[in-house]
Amino acid sequence: MNVRSVIIVTTLFLFAWSCKSKSTSDHIPRQTMQHLLTDITLAESYSISVKDTSHKEGTKNMDSLAGFYLDVFAHYKVTQEQFDASLDWYKDHPEELDSIYSDMIPVIAAMQSRPQLKK
């Protein structure tokens, strides 16, 4: 191998390694992501129950939902970009994402079984 080939191969290797290194370490930790996804699921559900004159019953109130998302991200001190990048990471690691959702089911089920306050 000549020097030029070695430099090209080394550069490609370092580039590939740096991309892989970033993708495995720059994601929201599992526990935090589980809480985030739980709160986002609740926000999505709640946005359907927010009714006003411009939203029919059973449709998402996207204005309210956008505000809910901002509140959830602020609570966990993450940005939309961090969340999206982390969700992409978890999508590339489906066993992790599946585990998060599996752990969310009993939490949300417990919330649903609580008595509702009458309005």
Identify the overall geometry: globular
Please tally the helical runs, counting DSSP H or I stretches of 4 or more residues.
5
How large is the share of residues in beta strands? under 5%
In whole angstroms, how far apart are the ends?
78 Å
Evaluate the radius of gyration: 21 Å
Poorly predicted segments = 20-24
- Give the mean pLDDT: 79
| Helical residues, percent | over 70%
The SSE string, one letter per element, is HHHHH
Counting structural domains, the number is 1
Largest sheet: none
Please tally the β strands and state the result: 0
Classify the secondary structure makeup into a structural class: mainly alpha
Provide a descriptive summary of the structure in words.
The protein is 76% helix and 0% strand. The chain is mostly helical and 119 residues long. It has one domain (27-113). The radius of gyration is 21 Å and the shape is globular. It starts with a helix and ends in a 6-residue tail after the last helix.
